[in-house]
Design goal:
The complex is a heterodimer of chains A (109) and B (113). In chain A, 0% of the residues lie in helices and 57% in strands. Chain A is an all-beta fold. In chain A, the strands form 2 sheets. In chain A, strands 2, 4, 5, 9, 10 and 11 form a 6-stranded mixed beta sheet that branches. A 5-stranded antiparallel beta sheet of chain A has the order 1-3-8-7-6, with no helix packed on it. In chain B, strands 2, 4, 5, 6, 9, 10 and 11 form a 7-stranded mixed beta sheet that branches. A 4-stranded antiparallel beta sheet of chain B has the order 1-3-8-7, with no helix packed on it. Classes of the chains: A mainly beta (109), B mainly beta (113). At the A-B interface, strand 4, strand 5, strand 9 and strand 10 of A face strand 5, strand 9 and strand 10 of B.
């Protein structure tokens, strides 16, 4: 099954800095989704980018998609301590959604 | 409030004792699924359902059963739990099919002794 793989596995920054996470996947996709998971809690959908889109914004989030390189990036600008969480990319197949193993982001005050 | 509700949130039980984790959504979603999350392995899909009475295996279905008799409910059944099923479980649902944003429950932490 196709799978997103995030990079880096862990990222530690200071409040106010930007955080960039990358995702690579293996086969063609209809869309790519990003989710956030606070420690031990359920995943929360952040943003969906379609295969014919190159960039999408939502508040402090900016997602890019490069289908030729089969990669996506999630940028969080002006990070806050509350952004501390794990971030996952996910790629839908015909009937299943496959998640990467995630990037753990730690934002220190 | 739109939500996916799982019960119980935490359960410690013993090998072989049948258990059911319930999942209910109030958003009239067609697609529902179960995942387990394990350190180093990420989220893996156990079963999914595209609609009432339509279920199918995900990536790791062994040892699990599901049913979808009503649109809102999608229980996960462990007929004879074993220690390797100790994990954090999530139920999710979406309007339409899997390529739509998924709504997740808060998770069920199962410990099988």
């Amino acid at each position: 099954s196709q799978q997103g793989e995030e990079d880096p596995q862990a990222l530690s920054i200071q409040e106010g800095e930007n955080a960039t996470m990358n995702c690579s996947y293996k086969t063609s996709i209809n869309n790519l989704q990003w989710y956030r998971q606070n420690s031990g809690r359920g995943l929360v959908h952040l943003i969906l980018i379609r295969s014919n889109e190159r960039e999408k914004h939502s508040g402090r989030l900016r997602v890019t998609l490069d289908t030729s390189k089969k990669s996506s990036s999630l940028l969080i600008t002006a990070s806050r301590a509350a952004d501390t969480a794990s971030y996952f990319c996910a790629t839908p197949g015909y009937s299943t959604l496959t998640f990467g193993k995630g990037t753990m982001l730690l934002v220190s005050p | 409030e739109a939500q996916v509700t799982q019960n119980p949130r935490y359960l410690i039980t013993v090998t072989g004792k049948k258990l059911t984790v319930t999942c209910s959504q109030n958003m009239n979603h067609e697609y529902m699924s179960w995942y387990r999350q394990d350190p180093g392995l990420g989220l893996r899909q156990i079963y999914y359902s595209m609609n009432v009475e339509v279920t199918d295996k995900g990536d790791v279905p062994e040892g699990y059963k599901v049913s979808r008799k009503e649109k809102r409910n999608f229980p996960l059944i462990l007929e004879s739990p074993s220690p390797n099923q100790t994990s954090l479980y999530f139920c999710a649902s979406s309007l339409g099919q899997v390529n739509q944003p998924q709504h997740f429950g808060d998770g069920t932490r199962l410990s099988i002794l």
